[in-house]
Known about the structure:
Helix content is 32%, strand content 23%. It is of the alpha+beta class.
Amino acid sequence: MPCYSGIETKLTDLETVQKAAEATGITVTKRSATRYTLSKDGESIDIECKAGEKYFSTVAYSGSSNWPDAIIRPLTQQYAKERVKQFAKKRGYMVSAGSKPGQVVLTKYGK
């Protein structure tokens, strides 16, 4: 895939959101059964999974000024990595750290 490609990431799995948040130093606080506040270093934003939807979205006017860069960008990047790892493990790949920070290597042995 070319380096200028983009892939949309939708947050669909709360357990993976929480795992990605922990890895990036983001705190997840439950507000209701479908609404959570994400916070880090004085920045915050609420996410919610509305009835009938399969993914979380940000709640308008619920955040601080720099939440896209401070919270959503690192969270979605880590979330995507976690989902790739889960997908690879289910298909029999071994997941290990690469030689560069943030790099993941997928290896499959045998046939």
